[in-house]
Fold these 2 entries.
Entry 1:
Amino acid sequence: MEALAAAVAAGADAVYLGGTRFSARRDAANFDAAALRDAVDYAHARGVAVHATVNTLIHDAELRAVGEYLLFLYEIGVDAVLFQDTGVLSLARRIVPALPVHASTQMTIVSVEGVRRAAAQGMSRVVLARELGLREIEEMRPALAETGIELEVFLHGALCYAYSGQCLLSSVIGGRSGNRGACAQPCRKPYALLRGAADRYGRPTDLRPVEGAGPYPLSTQDICLYPILDRVAAAPVAALKIEGRMKSPVYVAVVTAIYRRALDAVAAGRFVPSAEDELDLALAFNRGFTAGYLAGVRHRGVIGPDRPDNRGVAIGTVTAFSHGRMEATVALAGPLAPANGDGLAVTSPDGSFGFVLRGDPRACGGLVRLRVPEAAAVGAVVSITRSAALEERARATIRMGRQAVRIDAEVCWDRDGTPVVDAVCTPPRRPPVQVRVRAPGPMAAARTRPLDAAEIGDHLKKTGGTQFFIGDLVLHYPGGLFAPPSYLNALRRSLFDAAETGLRAAARPSPEAVAAARRRCEDVLAGVAAEHARAPPARTLAVYTDTPEGVGAACAAGADRVYFEPVECTETVLSQAADAACVPLIWVWPGIVRRAVLDAALPLLDTAGIAGVMVGGHGCAGAVRARSPSMPLFGGAGLNIWNHLAVLNHPEFAVLTLSPELSGEDIRALVARLPSCAPAIEVLVQGTTEAMVTEDCPPATAVGCPAGCSGDAWALRDDRRRVFPLRTDRACRAHIGNAVETCLVDHLPALLAAGVGGVAVDARGRGPVYAGEMTALYRKALDAAGRSGDRAILSRLKEEIKKRSLGGITASSYLRGTD
């Protein structure tokens, strides 16, 4: 609640907050039901909108709870809800259709087609992926005018290394899913970048560390768009977002206040970046600042490989150290000097330590002497990581609050001398609210000195310590009356209380609307747990590969369908793959399809031999169908299908791939709830799970382009010696795989019994030998599943699979699910 109050006091127009469930920042100090209601009331009484986050992926077993939660959010008057899960989105549209819905950045919307898809599904705003540039956003302007949908972009704060919503690294390492709000931030851990060759099964070998990559090659700097705020504000974006969750109230107040002033200056045409503001932003918290992908910055301009934590602001270097006094002499690099209460860090190649400065240090001629708890090496850099003065200014901002709600009032007096106030309360960006307040009793006839109108007005205009300010005040005062100051102060307080009550009530739906929503909720939720009888689906074995040779090998080994995702897609490559295929060939589009890729891909849909297209991004299906209306569609794992409502929200697809994060029980529950008309379901049963797709290319960041396209094998090794394979694509984008290969061969009987007909082997990046041999092994496994004695056959096949695997095999996600 303190951070919320800080954001409101510092000038936020809207705040984002999450409940204790279904929020993508599960470890934040989220709000329980009572606190959430209070928070919404607090914000609305101050003219600030509240956007609630329901931006995690949801299991079928949770659909009832999330439906009831959506009803609660509607009842308490939240202004919008953010979603990632398209199944939950469809639930919201049915239960609370009047509640505005926004697409979370977790939906990974990167194109105008994705924006159009969101608009068609009833969304009023899209929080774009952080990786988009200003030019791409500008190109969306016509679609925004056509659909009425709004855009929102991140303005300041932490920058995820991978595309949000497409990162499974925390999940595959430890079962803590970022898609469930439990990300353990493995990208902030140390890794060694490795370079080597690949064996016949596509496994990295002869790996050697790459110099210059830094110990934290996945750790990004923080985004800070303050220096280019005028350019950002000129783009077709309706909202600019500061990441303030899991941050202190002081941080929230400092950053919000700076951007509030700056945006007001932009609107007035007088914005000039302030060095003082930039310093305060850095003192609040920074891992180094970058304008990021929005400004076209990449590689070393985005990544901060040296360290993953707060860097503070460097103020000087140690020039001498006295062991006897434990005192460091520091040569200041500029005017910024440490003061009592500041948090300081001393960093050298040998390590670092921090401490809180007690007392003002001795200073003379650009030198300061600091008492330190440990020996400080000469040459060590001294930084302020916490500014006591900045924190005090932030606390003053929070104490003072912000007077943002205007009250225009007219006061009349009844015949008996009782004042009646009719007021119009106008919060920023919200409809005005009318209130009427009557004093509890009349003013008395004056015996000696009656009050004049100016004195009464002065009392009513005292708004200090509140969110209100008085605009027009009209007094129809008959004169000749008297009341003590306490009487007029009480009248003023009654006016403000009525204004708060009116503002809160105006933001909530009517009792009739709530009752209707409750009836819809009961009707809808009664059906979400219903199971359906379905005929057993046909058993199919699909294989992913990325070369025409892999296509031929998979076909020859018994694949029923081949998914082809070439590293570089041309008509020639597609034709070669089609010629090599003797089963349906499905062209797999990249998981991230931005404008340039889409423009190159659409004309290739006419290539002969393509039996369908697989897409993993929102909006791509519509683009395919607009060009080739009869083209069969297949849904990739990037669509994040977690529940049966998400399946039903994609009726245009022939086949949908379930998320690799689901457990066997999750899969069973999902399939059991599908009607016979639903798309077919497929499960990835073998291969290296893609743990990350990122706009960064670690080889290029470390040693420069075109290192990632050299044909070498690349990998990352963590401090537990696990090796994560890394491959790049022609967009200079990196795909990081799990260190251990998924293998569900011994769980095939359970999958088939659950009603899953389609299983897939992922051989991308593994070469034609792996594709052929693994296809043959799974062909035998599928044939054996359900037969007497198949367990022994499956066990033998599992041993053969293990010999060809990368890093060993695992079924952990299938067995335990994700947290």
Entry 2:
Amino acid sequence: MMERMEFAEVVLPLPLNATFTYRVPETMAGRVTVGHRVVVPFGARKHYTGIVTALAVEPPKGVQVKEILSLLDDKPIVRHPQLKFWQWLSDYYMASLGDVYKAAIPAGLKVESETFLELNPDYDEALAQEGVEASLTDREQIVLHHLNQEGKMSVAAIVKATGFTAVPQIASRLLERGLVVVSEKIVERYTARKIAMVRPAFNARDPQALHAAFDATKGAPKQEQMLQTLLALSGALRPGVEAAQVTREALLEKTGMTSTILLALAKKGLVESYKKEVNRFAYDGTPVKEPPTLTPDQSRALDEIHRSFLDKQVTLLHGVTSSGKTELYMHLIKYVLDRGDQALMLVPEIALTTQLTKRLQRVFGSRVVIYHSKFTDNQRVDIWKRLLDGREPCVVIGARSALFLPFARLGLVIVDEEHESSYKQYDPSPRYNARDAAIVLATMHGAKTLLGSATPSVESYYKAKTGRWGLVEMTHRYGDAQLPDIEVVDLKRARLAGLAEGSLAKSTIDLASQALGRGEQAIFFLNRRGFAPMARCKACAYIPKCEHCDVSLTFHRRQNQLVCHYCGALYPVPTVCPQCHEPAIETVGYGTERVEAEVEQRFSQYRILRMDLDTTRSKDAYDNIIDDFSQHKADILVGTQMVTKGLDFAGVSVVAVLNADALINFPDFRSSERAFNMMSQVAGRAGRREGQQGRVVIQSYQPDNPILQFVKTHDYQGFYEHELGERQRYLYPPFARVIYIYLRHRDARTVDDAAAIHAQALAGKLGNRVFGPDEPAVSRVQSLYIRKIMVKLETEASPSRVKQILHEERMRLYRNPAFRSLLVHYDVDPQ
């Protein structure tokens, strides 16, 4: 009787919204299950790591089915809820399933194929052809010799072995003559962290063996002492107790001896060394057993959250800055861990994990797990495997990517600073909002979600106020600390009166000077990095722009170069204007680098730190800056929006917002909300301790702007009602759903034509819900011209039907030969 064949549906890390069918070979029958990693062929020569999403006994008709090449794991590395979550992300955000998989799995778990060279099996015949052997150069013969000796070699290995830099060209010529062939070798990126361990090489509980071991060390007191220490550390002499594992480092440290003594013991056969695979994130501190005691206001809020969770899946915690939301998070996490479940705490910036991790580790110790994109592939795989292999209660702290971890028993999701636009992934696909995705993930696990913020997003507060979500409010700061006094400085009037120089008004300088004189700290906030946002010719007003993007170049003084903040291209600063040929190039405007230099000049006796993208590129840079400022190793912090997000600095009494207008006047329906949130949050860094009165100064050329008045009076409720009225009047969220459609092409006329045709076709089916096309604020990036179409839907409209129409019309557009190289992507619920 013939055995039944098995087929697997496999998702690949490619921008394709489909799975592919592969035959399960007989050698793997019954071993391949949903969630397994498999290596499969794709195309002529490529191999990819795919994830099995389903099994079947019948292949699709009319399709040639290839066979799975390799099964990489004994058990699945992806759990069923994860696959369900991936599919939701793909459907809702109109992203390919392959892109979701690519974003979800650490690169270290994705095996790649790498090009290798080897001699052609018919090498002798190819060499025997007329004139081939005689035409070989010396270098070609040397490469062939190495391939003959080594077998398969990568191009990099050949370069290293021969010292030749032009190996690709040599290989190309050898390929043309049929002397070598390209082969594929599977490469695994992940390497586990292993530490050196030491153990006795004899049975220490056997008196005869123990006696013989010490006889062998007679006359060598250091060897005898090291052996005694090893037995003591391992507990190998204690009956009925399993011997503990001892690290080589611990043994050498305890004895104060060198590895030479250990080597001598090994040569006598008394000890043996081995490697042990360990997790990279062991916590060695001692946790406090209980979270901090709550104030009456915090206790009341905690009780209300628990009551809200009885009938609401999601609860919004609206607490003013420094009201003690983190203490509530700790109590909720403890409740979940004591129940045997896991918790996920999302933060908008990696910087926030530093302070939060230390606070949570003091309570939960090694049960705190950190996960974010600054970790190496190996570190991320270690964390993935820890969650996959264990079901022990733990709390994961991380940014967006932590959503994709393989949780076994997720009981609670906390989204801190839920209003933050950083939760939105922009590029590459999938363009998801981690806050909204977290709510869906929690629902799939049967878990509850708590959203926390001092300035909730308009949509979240609307859902809470209308009863869809629970709402708990905290209106007082922790320990009776007072909200800061906020002053708005009219920068135009100050300049006319000679009371402003550079980026700072005199009142700002005076306020900071007084605070610093009292031994307190100050923060200067400007949401623009670099030294100056543009260079300009004083003679003819020429402005250098990026060759690939439709933006002016930012001057970075440390690099002494002009930088495009969109594509990263670098340009030298022209000594003369390329247009009028005059030596008249100047830098215009302010970035954090220039503010740092100006503050350094004015406050030369104080220590200054800067926190922006340029100073935090390395993994530990965030931690170092935050730790140094927290420990008052610096007096002044200059930074971008990174300094606004939930950081707790006890010594800060003054905060200066240097350019409020740049935040308010951005052409986007969310600009008022972003400006209010950002200024309120950075203001909340001031005066966070009892007895300390914080002062905030906001510099603006529009001091009467209503947004600034709401910030000044700490009036979130007033801002919410004002903004809600604007949104309702012009039909924006929460009264409508918005989808942006972006079209990109290297030719401006082609993208114009495609956008016009696409918008017209969509309007034919969706009517006046379609707006545009138009040019976005930056209409060319990386040599691609960009056009935008907006689709605005009523909240009761069927999203799935609309997305089906969008997909159909995109496919229709692609069928036009003129638009085949067109790129189209969607931004669902833009932030």
